[in-house]
Structure formats: structure tokens, C-alpha cells
């Protein structure tokens, strides 16, 4: 999986590419652990993300919890298969998906 | 012990043999050099001796009288004295072969006087007037010296001249006018030179051999003391280590061997420490393993495992199983009667695996069952449980839950799905199909959530199958997932199968698919066959 970070002041865009599953989720978690300091607007660009597993959802949930205290978090460009996952798992109720 | 001795012997033997060879080589070299040097020295000595004799005798000769003796052939008192001088010299110096005074003429010498000593062959000794005609070339190199009045020496080695190896010296005799009127020749035989030098060389060899033997003997002693014994001590040190009787030996000298002994002792100390650590860790692992075994049993005991669970209830046939990937798992299923007419069924999957997931599973299972028995709809139950699970959930674990409450008398039910897999349902004689609808988020993701619920109806003969993602995401060696398609395929293999057989069939299909790959996630399944209200049976 490829993670691309683009920081513009307090606005951070994280573009994910590939599969976010048990093996790659710790990588994203590690990067976000430090990257979220001082960020008030977090955007996940999932245009090139193919798959997300429950481990990946957990990382998004953690980020969501952090951001709910210091700003906002949105998820963008999730394709229909990802949307299915968000819907079925109920994460579409929690996360802001645009 | 036997082997040890052998090693010791061979080590000092090897060093001694090598040393002996080196010393022998050195002895040969020393002897050769000494031999050559001695020979050169002796030759030099003989030459000088012959020269000295020739010069001193030449100095004694009265040059004015020599020519007269040759011409007249008559002798006088002075001649007799001269003869006695030559005789005296000849007798005194044993190495002298010939010593004589000759008068040089063109192409020949005329003998004037020759020294005679006891034991000489008279016929070989020349008298006054004897003539020696020499070859034109024989003394050619000497003539310039004679003409110039210089003394000269010639070394004749070998037998070619007929006198044996010798060194000859010539010294000129001058008359009062400074003319050369004679030459004194002293010939020193070199026949015993080789014998003398050889005797010297032999003495050197003898002394050297003695030295070599002494050194070798000393060397063996020193080797034994300084190498063999310390090495033996080191060996027994290492041997004794097996018996745990380790102490750094104090060797005779503080050298490399003592350092080696120190290193041995240090190494053994570290090995001991490491072994102790390994033992401790192993004991700890065993303890954890034993505890995990108990935990596995406790967890297994927490899940209802007696089938059929309600033998007197003919409305339903229910079977469930949980196969953890590790000793303890995060999956669980549950079913219980809330009252006479209501059956609650739960299947859940805690995110993560192992002990943390198992602990969370215990809490979730207990909370759900307790809360469900207090009454209420699935959405209400999940809401309350979610509030409690979200409280202080620092580990950020969450649990997907499917909860259904079925009214056994009517087949009507309410279900809530908190992020869990799609249930599969078989209607009557049809096939299993996944029932897809929008789910609520998993429990413990965050507090204050509302959960969706929906009604459903089971007709007599319908079959309900729920499972965790360990089923659909079972992975084979090629990293391919088992998937929903293969699941429904396995479920539909035998339309008449009872819940227990269905679960076995699915498990078998998974095992066949996965092959030798390691089970990565817990595999949990629950199947309900609704036979219809009791009175209809």
C-alpha cells in the first residue's frame, strides 16, 4: 500500500493506494500517530484504495476519534465497493463520507 | 583422559619436531659458513706464514755472496751457516714443504741452498748448482715481481704441478747494488689444510648438536610447563564446566593462555546467565502456556456446547461451533431463552486476536446476555451494551455483533446487525442466500450511537446461518479468500442437511480450500433450523 501525505497548513490530505488490511493497517496507524499533531482538517482520499478490512476500518475509526477532538475528518472518493463496506459495517453512520 | 594425553603429546611433539628441523637447518648453515670461513682463514694464514718465512730468510741472505757461490760452485763458512739457517727453518715449521734460495737465470733457476729437515727424502732436496729448467710459462707471472724486486705469493691448489696443494711465496734477495741476485721460495703444503678445517667443522657440529639436544630437552620441559599443562588445565576447565564446577584457573604465566582461560571462564559465566535466562523465559512460557490452556478451556466453557441445547423444544434445531486461531479467540456465539417463547441468538467478532480479544469477548458476551435477559429489542440491547463497552476503551477494540430475538411461537423476530457479516437464510426447500441490508456500526466504536433493527420472519422449515469473517476470509496458500460464493456453495451442497451437518460441511469446505495454510482468524458459525410452532409439529 502507498500512503501519500500532503500537508497545507493545518489541513492534511492522506491519499491511500492499494489494500488497507491487517498487514498494511499498522503502517498507516504509525504514520498517522505523528502526522495528526496540529491538524484541524483531515481528508482521506480513497480514490485509489481497492480494499479495506476491519483492521483498516479500526485505523480510520482511531483517526476519527482523534480528529473529533481537534477538528474534522472527511473521507472522499470512496468507490462503490468501498461504500458497500462502509455501509455494511455501519461505518457510514460514524464517518463523514463525501 | 586417554585422548587428552594424546593431544598433549602430539602438540609438544609437533612443536619439538619443528624446532629440531629448524635447528638442524641452522646447524647445517652455521657449519657450512664456518667451514668456508675457516678454510679462507687457514689459507690466508698459510700464505702469510710462507711469505713471512720467505721474507725473513731473504733478509738474512748476504746478496753479494750468492752470485759467487753459483759461479764457483764452492762453499764457505757463511754458506754453511746459511744452510743451517734454512735447515733450522725447515725443521721448525712443520707445514713447510720446500724452502730454498735460487739464482734466477733466463729460463732456469740455479739452486743455491735448500733447507733440509729430519725425515726428508734426500733425493728430493737440491744442492748448490742444481738447475731447474722451467717451462717458459711456468714462472712468467712471477718475473715482473722478481724484476721489480717485489715479494709475491702464489696459491697452487690441487695436484697439477706435482707437488700437491700448496701455497708458495717468493721473496727477492738483493746485492749491495740493489740487483736481484736470488729468490727465496717457501712452499707450504696444504695437504693437511682440509683435514684441519674438517676437524674444526666437526667440533663445531659436535658443539651445535649438543646445544640442539640441550635446547630441545629444555624446550620439551618448557612446552610441558607453559603450554601442555596450561592447555590441559584449560581442557579440564572446559570438561569440568559440564559438571558446573567452574572456576578460572590460575595458570603459571599471565600470557595468552591465561587470557584464554579468562575468556573461557567469562564465556561459561555468560552461558550460565543465558541458560538461567532461557530457563526463566521457558518456565514463564510454560506458565503462560498452561494458563492459556486453562483460558482456552474457560472460554470454551463459556460458550454453550451441549447440543441439542433444548432437547424438549421441538421448534428448533440449533448447532454452533467456534475454532480459535490461537489458544483463545475473539469470536463468540451465544444462544439462550429469554423466556419460554423468545430465543436470543448472538454471533460476534472482536477486532484483533489472542488474549486482548478474548478478554474483550468475555465482557461483550456477558454484557449482551445479561442485558438481553432484562428484555427489550435488539437495538436497545446493543445501545446499552455499546455505552458500557465504549467507556474507557483505550485499546480501541471493537466488536461486530449480530443479535436476533426470535419468537418461537410465531417465527417472527427482530434482528440488529452491528457491522457483522451478512446472515444466510434458506427459505423452505430453496437455497441459502445472503441477506444484505445496511448495518449499524460495530459495538464499542463510540458512545451515544443508535442501532438499527429490523423485523424478520422464519417460516417452518427455514434455516438461518450466521458466521464470522474467519469463514469468508479463510485464506489459502495463494492468498485467495474463501469468500461468500464458496460459503453458499458449501451450504447448498446438501439441501436436507441438519444444522450440525451444515456446519461440518462448511468447515470441511474451508479446510479443503485452505490446505496447509495456517488458520489466521477464528472460525465461528451458528445455524438454526426452525421447525415451526410446537403444536404444529
Task: Walk me through what this model shows.
- The complex is a heterodimer of chains A (about 100) and B (about 525).
- Chain A contains 4 helices and 5 strands.
- Chain A is α/β, with parallel strands linked by helices and about 100 residues long.
- The two termini of chain A are about 25 Å apart.
- In chain B, strand 8 (about 330-340) and strand 9 (about 340-350) form a beta hairpin.
- With about 525 residues, chain B is of the alpha+beta class.
- Chain B is rod-shaped.
- A 6-stranded antiparallel beta sheet of chain B has the order 3-2-1-6-5-4. In chain B, strands 7-16-15-12-13 form a 5-stranded antiparallel beta sheet.
- Chain B has 3 domains: about 1-195, 2-Layer Sandwich (Beta-Lactamase), CATH 3.30.450; about 245-300, no CATH class; about 305-535, 4-Layer Sandwich (Phosphatase 2c, domain 1), CATH 3.60.40.10.
- The two termini of chain B are about 90 Å apart.
- The chains are: A alpha/beta (about 100), B alpha+beta (about 525).
- Chains A and B meet through helix 2, helix 3 and helix 4 of A and loops of B.
Sequence-ordered SSE layout with sheet pairings:
The complex is a heterodimer of chains A (98) and B (537).
Chain A: E1 2-8, E2 11-20, H1 25-35, E3 41-52, H2 54-70, E4 72-76, H3 80-89, H4 91-94, E5 96-97
Parallel strand pairs in A: 2-3, 3-4, 4-5
Antiparallel strand pairs in A: 1-2
Chain B: H1 2-60, H2 63-72, H3 77-92, E1 96-105, E2 108-114, E3 131-133, H4 143-148, E4 152-156, E5 166-174, E6 180-189, H5 193-241, H6 256-302, E7 316-323, E8 331-339, E9 342-350, H7 354-373, H8 378-390, E10 399-407, E11 412-418, E12 424-426, E13 432-434, E14 454-457, E15 463-467, H9 469-472, H10 483-491, H11 499-514, E16 523-530
Antiparallel strand pairs in B: 1-2, 1-6, 2-3, 4-5, 5-6, 7-16, 8-9, 9-10, 10-11, 11-14, 12-13, 12-15, 15-16
Helix pairs in contact in B: 1-5, 5-6, 7-8, 10-11
Question: What's a concise summary of this model?
Answer:
The complex is a heterodimer of chains A (98) and B (537). Helices cover 43% and strands 37% of the residues of chain A.
Amino acid at each position: 500500500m502507498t500512503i501519500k501525505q500532503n500537508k497545507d497548513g493545518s489541513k492534511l490530505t492522506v491519499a491511500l493506494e492499494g489494500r488497507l488490511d491487517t498487514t498494511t493497517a499498522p503502517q498507516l496507524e504509525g504514520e498517522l500517530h505523528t502526522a495528526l499533531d496540529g491538524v484541524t482538517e483531515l481528508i482521506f482520499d480513497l480514490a485509489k484504495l481497492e480494499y479495506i478490512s476491519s483492521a483498516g476500518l479500526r485505523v480510520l475509526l482511531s483517526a476519527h476519534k482523534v480528529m473529533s477532538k481537534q477538528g474534522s475528518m472527511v473521507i472522499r472518493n470512496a468507490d462503490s465497493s468501498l461504500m458497500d463496506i462502509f455501509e455494511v459495517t455501519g461505518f457510514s453512520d460514524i464517518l463523514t463520507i463525501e | 583422559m586417554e585422548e587428552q594425553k594424546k593431544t598433549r603429546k602430539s602438540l609438544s611433539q609437533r612443536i619439538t619436531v619443528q624446532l629440531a628441523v629448524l635447528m638442524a637447518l641452522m646447524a647445517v648453515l652455521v657449519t657450512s659458513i664456518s667451514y668456508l670461513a675457516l678454510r679462507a682463514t687457514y689459507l690466508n694464514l698459510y700464505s702469510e706464514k710462507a711469505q713471512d718465512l720467505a721474507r725473513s730468510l731473504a733478509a738474512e741472505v748476504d746478496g753479494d755472496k750468492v752470485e759467487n757461490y753459483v759461479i764457483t760452485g764452492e762453499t764457505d763458512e757463511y754458506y754453511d751457516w746459511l744452510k743451517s739457517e734454512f735447515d733450522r727453518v725447515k725443521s721448525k715449521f712443520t707445514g713447510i714443504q720446500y724452502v730454498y734460495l735460487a739464482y734466477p737465470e733466463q729460463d732456469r733457476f740455479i739452486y743455491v741452498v735448500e733447507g733440509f729437515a729430519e725425515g726428508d727424502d734426500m733425493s728430493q732436496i737440491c744442492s748448490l748448482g742444481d738447475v731447474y729448467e722451467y717451462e717458459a710459462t711456468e714462472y712468467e707471472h712471477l718475473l715482473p715481481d722478481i724484476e721489480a724486486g717485489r715479494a709475491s705469493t702464489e696459491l697452487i691448489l690441487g695436484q697439477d704441478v706435482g707437488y700437491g696443494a700448496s701455497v708458495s711465496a717468493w721473496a727477492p734477495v738483493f746485492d749491495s747494488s740493489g740487483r736481484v741476485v736470488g729468490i727465496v721460495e717457501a712452499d707450504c703444503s696444504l695437504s693437511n689444510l682440509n683435514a684441519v678445517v674438517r676437524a674444526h667443522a666437526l667440533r663445531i657440529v659436535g658443539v651445535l648438536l649438543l646445544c640442539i639436544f640441550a635446547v630441545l630437552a629444555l624446550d620439551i620441559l618448557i612446552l610441558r610447563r607453559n603450554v601442555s599443562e596450561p592447555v590441559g588445565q584449560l581442557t579440564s576447565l572446559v570438561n569440568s564446566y559440564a559438571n558446573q564446577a567452574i572456576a578460572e584457573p590460575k595458570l603459571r604465566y599471565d600470557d595468552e593462555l591465561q587470557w584464554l582461560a579468562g575468556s573461557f571462564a567469562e564465556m561459561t559465566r555468560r552461558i550460565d546467565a543465558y541458560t538461567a535466562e532461557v530457563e526463566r523465559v521457558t518456565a514463564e512460557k510454560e506458565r503462560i502456556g498452561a494458563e492459556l490452556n486453562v483460558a482456552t478451556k474457560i472460554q470454551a466453557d463459556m460458550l454453550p456446547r451441549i447440543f441439542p441445547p433444548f432437547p424438549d423444544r421441538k421448534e428448533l434445531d440449533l448447532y454452533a461451533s467456534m475454532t480459535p486461531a490461537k489458544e483463545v479467540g475473539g469470536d463468540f456465539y451465544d444462544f439462550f431463552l429469554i423466556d419460554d417463547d423468545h430465543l436470543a441468538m448472538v454471533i460476534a467478532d472482536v477486532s484483533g486476536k489472542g488474549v486482548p480479544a478474548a478478554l474483550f469477548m468475555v465482557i461483550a458476551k456477558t454484557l449482551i446476555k445479561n442485558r438481553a435477559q432484562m428484555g427489550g429489542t435488539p437495538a436497545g440491547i446493543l445501545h446499552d451494551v455499546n455505552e458500557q463497552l465504549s467507556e474507557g476503551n483505550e485499546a480501541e477494540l471493537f466488536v461486530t455483533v449480530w443479535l436476533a430475538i426470535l419468537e418461537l411461537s410465531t417465527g417472527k423476530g427482530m434482528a440488529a446487525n452491528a457491522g457483522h457479516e451478512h446472515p444466510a437464510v434458506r427459505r423452505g426447500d430453496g437455497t441459502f442466500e445472503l441477506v444484505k441490508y445496511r448495518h449499524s456500526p460495530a459495538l464499542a466504536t463510540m458512545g451515544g450511537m443508535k442501532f438499527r433493527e429490523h423485523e424478520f420472519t422464519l417460516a417452518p422449515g427455514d434455516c438461518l446461518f450466521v458466521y464470522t469473517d474467519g469463514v469468508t476470509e479463510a485464506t489459502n496458500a495463494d492468498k485467495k479468500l474463501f469468500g461468500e460464493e464458496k460459503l453458499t456453495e458449501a451450504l447448498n451442497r446438501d439441501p436436507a442437511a441438519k444444522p450440525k451437518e451444515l456446519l461440518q460441511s462448511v468447515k470441511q469446505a474451508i479446510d479443503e480450500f485452505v490446505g496447509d495454510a495456517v488458520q489466521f482468524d477464528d472460525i465461528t458459525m451458528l445455524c438454526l433450523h426452525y421447525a415451526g410452532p410446537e403444536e404444529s409439529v
